[in-house]
Amino acid sequence: MVFGDEFNKLSDDFVDRRQWRYDPPESLTSVGMTYARRLELTSPSNPFHLERGGVLETLVVEYEAYGELSSDGCNAILVTHALSGDAHAAGWDGEARRRDRQWRLRRPGWWDGMIGPGKPLDTNRFFIICANVIGSCYGTTGPASINPATGKPYGLRFPEVTVGDWVCMEAMLLDRLGIDQLYAVCGGSLGGQQALEWALRFPDRVGKCLVLASGPKLPTQGVGFNAVGRHAILHDPYFRGGDYYGHAEQPRHGLAVARMLAHITYQSGKQMDSRFGRKLQEESLKKGWYEVEYAVESYLNHQGRAFVERFDANSYLYMTKAMDHYDAAGAWGDGDLWQACKRVKAEMLVATFSTDWLYPPEESSLFVKALLANRIPVTYVKIDSIYGHDAFLLEVERVGRMLRAFLLSPMPSRRTRVPESGGGL
Amino acid sequence: MVFGDEFNKLSDDFVDRRQWRYDPPESLTSVGMTYARRLELTSPSNPFHLERGGVLETLVVEYEAYGELSSDGCNAILVTHALSGDAHAAGWDGEARRRDRQWRLRRPGWWDGMIGPGKPLDTNRFFIICANVIGSCYGTTGPASINPATGKPYGLRFPEVTVGDWVCMEAMLLDRLGIDQLYAVCGGSLGGQQALEWALRFPDRVGKCLVLASGPKLPTQGVGFNAVGRHAILHDPYFRGGDYYGHAEQPRHGLAVARMLAHITYQSGKQMDSRFGRKLQEESLKKGWYEVEYAVESYLNHQGRAFVERFDANSYLYMTKAMDHYDAAGAWGDGDLWQACKRVKAEMLVATFSTDWLYPPEESSLFVKALLANRIPVTYVKIDSIYGHDAFLLEVERVGRMLRAFLLSPMPSRRTRVPESGGGL
Description:
The structure is a homodimer of 425-residue chains.
Chain A: H1 5-10, E1 33-34, E2 37-40, E3 48-49, E4 55-56, E5 60-66, E6 76-80, E7 92-93, H2 96-99, H3 102-106, E8 115-116, E9 121-122, E10 127-131, E11 146-147, E12 152-153, H4 163-176, E13 182-188, H5 190-201, E14 206-212, H6 220-234, H7 252-266, H8 269-275, H9 295-310, H10 313-325, H11 328-333, H12 337-341, E15 347-353, H13 361-373, E16 378-383, H14 391-394, H15 396-408
Parallel strand pairs in A: 1-7, 6-10, 6-13, 8-9, 13-14, 14-15, 15-16
Antiparallel strand pairs in A: 2-5, 3-4, 5-10, 11-12
Helix pairs in contact in A: 4-5, 6-7, 6-10, 7-9
């Protein structure tokens, strides 16, 4: 096992650990060891039709769930993951060793600070589900899956996916789990786009909708960064038009560059100044003047290298495209956000972070105004944080307090009662 | 000739032409056709010693000059160029056709809106010099130059250069031109670092120092973006350790990616939203779903492609490194900016742009405070602009007014008179 003392040695040096709450699996506030579940949502007579025209004859979804579904089925919260996330939102991956995902042994689920007994998404009270999205590389059918028509991995022949497709898939999964109504849907960044799409596409199925560090569409600057990342991948000579599976050489450098530049957009300038400034990297690693010199370069290189070990270049293309395409106003209001927001029946939480420049607070205030103009109950929070876009992952304390308060507030409009705590803490 | 009507057809579609003042060479406010001058600054007994330890036995500088040096030699202004700039600051390159630099036929010098008879840097009044920096690919000795020791291009064996080296080279050039005192030194971005370094290194030679969209050091976020750009170049399989000259395959994709991402940092998010939003690229150019779809992607691709035609990947490495290394406080104040500013004797202009997030206005205000604390006469201007970092190039009207006013204000502290206009306008 790698917990306890061993954990400190193994854990990622680059993570500011004060910001993370690493609950070892034996802790009373951890959901413990988790095991992903897989479910086939399609049948030969009932394939999955995608928004942009494609069809998947086989769609397997990988998801995790924590806590117990109450007898009335009214305590379910769907947590939606972001670009590089997956279904493993909390606890410690019981299958990591078997699958040789080293990075998963080193840290718990991506929102472990939020989800667990007594935590803001309290598993004593709520039944939490998190599903991996279509096109990802973490278990749900994606470009690395075998195309039944050819017996080979799809690669770029995998159909184009959208945030809407993900939400439809999540709705099918909930149907299969017998969950009609969600107490809440909650996500940050690309996960926030999914949460919002839930409130728009299935207004009658969502009680509370929590949109963190996200909005009705990605600002153009973010689309530009995504485009540069894709460009780096598509022009990596080892990309081979997406058919690199099984080859010794992979489009590692293209994917690493995409991740490195995206990673800068997840942080604030202030944070980078205070954390790195011009701190030098250890001398021993520098070979030539043009090589890594500053700690910030070494950090970004590390981010690139680590990402390449755990992510698939094709998935990066599909998922960033879905992020770029998402446009709530276009899809539901003919370009008019005010019109689109008419559909919402959920109680909304829109949370932004002062230094998030990927989804800046100013953009979100337009969204909040559109909700208010439709008399939708909305709570708007702008959290003062140095952590930029990633604050929704890193500001555990403040985000946690906000989520707890919003989730436990009564919903007079829906007459849904707040689930009781099942016990424990 | 390509001017007049032809010009409109040839000119770059992507440039918002309302923002540019394209003076054809026959215009009364253009400096007309220009011809670069070259000067060897070294001799076998007198090589150029660089700050970081290298030596150049041969250093040839390419520069341009506009206007006439007055008999007392007191009307010289040195204009310093930015990362992708060169000595051709104004007018139309008379050698462009001969050298087959197509892009130079399409647009005049990079600051043509500022420099010319009657313009803010008025060539009827001032003698304007702009020199290409060491390590560049536009005429001054750089990594593509022949290494006299081997008879082959230097590549990465070219010595490391700094902003300080550039300023020393510029000082040598002025010595050779018989210019002891600069009326002013003026630059934006990396050129602003040079202007500031002039005021610190040669305080007695500078009357006025104009630092635009720049500062005592590049914030860490910019260092991070530069590092990602270099990473893309260094890991392009055609880079071959910098010895790609003469090969059919060049590190084009690495350099294009570096430029594309840098180009995003030169613009503001607001500008990208208002200019592009989700406008689609023309259908005909799209081959697969993963290819260029939005106008913003097409624009960035264009920027990447165009840059590769005109810039050298090795030069990009050298020049971004110089930009990252520049640290006025470290070099002149032992890390203390206040201490460093003690050296300044010039009248300072510090100009920032409201949406410049590469050199944000907040950073510059610390610099201005350090100058004020030393009782240095300083004018601080924050120009409200949507154009982000590139506003120093694009806000021709407002930047022009500011430069004119600052340059023509008397300098009681130095008892230097403002040069009279030589005639014309």
